[in-house]
Amino acid sequence: HLPEKTELCYAVKANTFIIPELADLVDSFEVCSPGEKRICENLSIPWNMTVISGVHKDEEMIDSLIATDAPVRAYTVESLNQFHLISKTARRYDTIIPVLLRLTSGNQFGLDTEDIKHLVCDEKDNNHVIIKGIQFFSGTQKDSIKRLDRELSKLDAFLEELKRDCGFAAQILEFGPGFPVDYFGVGKIEDEAVFLDEFAELLVQLKFTGQIVLELGRSIAASCGTYLTSVVDT
């Protein structure tokens, strides 16, 4: 249903048990914690298929990844501190690290527009970090095409603004559409094929001509088995 240029990135936190089944079906895996990193290591997922994401990027984890000879696909940057940590570590190992700057949706995660402008304008000559593009994720259970249209339109306009004001042409837009999943009768859409076709048309209409990556988790994993848990406190 999606345009040819669209890639899929699977958020492994949604279900780690199906990672081996997805290795030939998706383009990349989003890894958000040291635990998820270890799972991918144990499953021999190539590092060039991983996007190191999330707020939990401590110095030890970043050092262990950048020190390897197998570079990861990209790192997301959720704060100015994360950018400086990645830059410092890359400089120490004299290597070049690709990053995606996470644009906040207005919550506690990611960088605001001014911080992103600051980085793309002031870090052009950084010899160890290359800014590949923008990441954006605003939540889940989005069953409204109009809402997705609004989000993509704002992203498209912001990317045009970065090009105009900073001379920065993003190569990658990683977007978390938060497709709805029918959990407990919530998030059901009547015709998934029509929904995906309408969403695909939104992607086609973008002015942005770079690589689009859709970061998906539960919408891929929800039907893959049964999740079992127990009540431990009431």
Helix and strand arrangement:
Blueprint: E1 6-11, H1 19-22, E2 28-31, H2 34-42, E3 50-52, H3 59-66, E4 74-77, H4 80-92, E5 97-103, H5 113-122, E6 129-137, H6 145-166, E7 172-176, H7 192-204, E8 211-216, H8 218-221
Parallel strand pairs: 1-2, 1-8, 2-3, 3-4, 4-5, 5-6, 6-7, 7-8
Structure at a glance:
It contains 8 helices and 8 strands. The protein has 234 residues and is of the alpha/beta class.
Order of helices and strands: EHEHEHEHEHEHEHEH
**Taking Cα atoms only, what radius of gyration do you get, to the nearest Å?**
18 Å
Q: Kindly report how far apart the N and C termini lie.
A: 44 Å
Helix content: 25-40%
Widest beta sheet: strand line-up: 1-2-3-4-5-6-7-8
What sort of overall outline do the alpha carbons produce when their principal axes are compared? globular
- The residue ranges in which pLDDT falls below 50 over 5 or more consecutive positions are none
Strand content: 15-25%
pLDDT averaged residue by residue: 93
Helical segment count = 8
Structural class: alpha/beta
Instruction: Tally the beta strands.
Output: 8
